[in-house]
Here is the input.
Amino acid sequence: MRKSARPLPFYARFANILFIVVALLAICYVGQGILSPLLLSILFAILLRPVAAFLNERLKIPNVLACLIAVFIFVIFFAVLFYFITYQVAGMAEDWDKIKSNLHNHYSNLQSYVQDTFELSKQEQDKMVSKATSGSMDTGKSIMGSTLVSFTDSLMNLILIPIYMFLILLYRTHFLKFLCKLFAPKHHPKLEDILKTIKTSVQSYILGLLFEFAIVSVLTALGLMIIGVKYAILLGVITGLLNLIPYIGIVIAGVLTVVASLTGNSDLTVLIGILVVNILVQFVDNNILVPIVVSSKVEINSIASIVGIIIGGALAGISGMFLAIPVMAILKVIFDRIESLEPWGYLLGDDLPKTFLLKKAKTKH
Here is the structure.
């Protein structure tokens, strides 16, 4: 009689897991140019699936044409948004001389403050600034080169993503049959449950992000209008878009808003007003919109979210940071439904609110 294989010791299983994780991260890093647009296309295709289904099943439009119309609507939406931003930025560029003049005034006032406070003359300050930026020319050249390459890659992705989306929507049934062929029939109910949950989670999460983008844009634009900042609508839209990039997005948006405010006047109270508006909008976003609209759609704890975003940024830049949360949500759905991987799903999850509510209910009884 054949003896059953003995389970591997813990250190061997841990070494295997570590090797698999490192290998997957290495593949993601090396293949980021291929994987990032493909993953983005999958997420957007999942979002557009109800639109294509409505056109095909309710309006009786052929499937190919329904998929094409759904992708076309998606492209038109972002094309209009891009046109609005570029049109407004072109108008802002005409005020560049005024921006430079106001920046010079603020810089002169800052130099005067430093001179009065630290007894450091303006000439000494200029020497220190010049010394600190002496190597900036070479750095700037390398940055320009990398920026050109990045722009070329982004342009290629803008072309590839709609094509990928159309093909994913068109061959959706083909891919589902492929997944069914990979697993035995007894696993098909679990596979169906996983795919259905992933679809619901991704659609809810992306719709939540779009809702967050709209609210943050409107609140920021209204706040900037109240304090009299020029191009308030443009800056509100840019803030809403950059806010989708965790952590660094709102910082970049704040800097752009401060620079843009110099097209109107150099009054320091306007800069203080911009700071107050950004703080208030972020307070509403972090304490109301994110917990209710976004975080409620994916059950990922805060530590896992932060670490995932940092890893995503290191692997694939901004697109990696954007993809981190939905990819982790998909992994959690899979982990939770496979017994051997369930501990990893629990590690990614967040059961603190449930525990709190359970204790509260017991206290009442």
User: Anything to note?
Assistant: Confidence is low (pLDDT under 50) at residues 139-151, 354-365. The radius of gyration is 26 Å. The chain is about 85% helix and 0% strand. The CA atoms of residues 239 and 253 lie 5 Å apart.
